[in-house]
């Protein structure tokens, strides 16, 4: 009996393993990962300095993903690596350009001009009564000069300084009398004493030829100082009198004339 010959089905052999292609694929993948790392680092610096660039790049990435999803075609490993490398290279160049662009430096505000003895003091133009405690001694002299100008004095000059012999402000009153003013910017716990008045009294009339001598302070006077002022004809203006003069609720201190009364 003849047995029919049984045909055997040839075995389906798989593809031959290509070591060179596999090594090339891994090398391209490693290169892409390294480039991606540098790009991510550069983009991180870019986003930190320019947040708007992060939003732009995010939008571009989303658009690319959407386009790729619609196309739905497979790319070979070589084309993926090549295109990824090109995209990462462009992104890196953009990020480096952004990092190289210097950030705008805000313009510095102009420095305020320092006090000048010939200019109108800042306290003169302030509404109401100025804060005399916040002024320096030089600014206080300028503020007193401004009050004299406000109340009609002419030829007002700030002459305080080294060798002034007690005179800080000189002026002519509206009546034509010569005013000589000494300014004492003191605190509440520091009063003008009799020695201060004696030094001023020794020069205001004989040296400066004052018709009316004034001592203006942000503090107060001791009793011996007021007594000496009354004897010599020096007008004393303490803190209360200064504030009233500044507010316009009291007449100018030279209107009291020479009599030593506390203004």
From TrEMBL:
Q: Which UniProt keywords apply?
A: Endonuclease, Hydrolase, Membrane, Nuclease, Transmembrane, Transmembrane helix
Alphabetical list of PANTHER family matching this protein: MRR RESTRICTION SYSTEM PROTEIN, SLL1429 PROTEIN
Which chain regions cross the lipid bilayer? Answer: 21-40, 52-69
Q: Which GO terms describe its molecular function?
A: endonuclease activity
Cross-referenced InterPro entries: Restrct_endonuc-II-like, Restrct_endonuc_IV_Mrr, tRNA_endonuc-like_dom_sf, Type_IV_Methyl-Rstrct_Enzyme
**What is the protein's given name?**
Restriction endonuclease
The residue ranges of the Restriction endonuclease type IV Mrr domain are 133-245
Q: Where is the composition biased (Pro residues)?
A: 103-113
Q: What is the lineage of its organism?
A: Bacteria, Bacillati, Actinomycetota, Actinomycetes, Kitasatosporales
Outline the segment boundaries, as ranges, of region: Disordered: 100-129
């Amino acid at each position: 009996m003849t047995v029919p010959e049984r045909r055997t089905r040839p075995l389906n052999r798989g593809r031959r393993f290509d070591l060179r292609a596999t090594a090339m694929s891994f090398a391209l993948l490693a290169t892409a990962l390294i480039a991606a790392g540098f790009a991510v680092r550069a983009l991180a610096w870019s986003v930190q300095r320019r947040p708007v660039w992060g939003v732009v790049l995010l939008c571009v990435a989303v658009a690319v993903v959407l386009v790729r999803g619609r196309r739905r075609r497979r790319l070979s490993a070589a084309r993926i690596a090549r295109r990824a490398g090109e995209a990462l290279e462009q992104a890196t160049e953009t990020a480096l350009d952004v990092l190289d662009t210097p950030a705008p430096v805000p313009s510095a505000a102009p420095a305020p001009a320092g006090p000048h003895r010939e200019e109108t003091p800042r306290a003169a133009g302030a509404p109401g009564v100025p804060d005399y405690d916040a002024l320096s001694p030089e600014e206080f002299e300028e503020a007193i000069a401004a009050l004299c100008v406000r109340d009609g004095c002419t030829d007002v000059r700030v002459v305080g300084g080294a060798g002034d012999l007690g005179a800080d402000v000189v002026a002519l009153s509206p009546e034509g009398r010569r005013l000589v003013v000494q300014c004492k910017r003191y605190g509440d716990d520091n009063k003008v004493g009799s020695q201060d008045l004696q030094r001023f009294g020794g020069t205001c009339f004989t040296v400066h030829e004052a018709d009316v001598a004034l001592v203006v302070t942000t503090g107060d006077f001791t009793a011996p100082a007021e007594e000496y002022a009354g004897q010599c004809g020096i007008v004393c203006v303490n803190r209360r009198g200064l504030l009233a003069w500044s507010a316009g609720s009291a007449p100018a201190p030279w209107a009291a004339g020479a009599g030593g009364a506390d203004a």
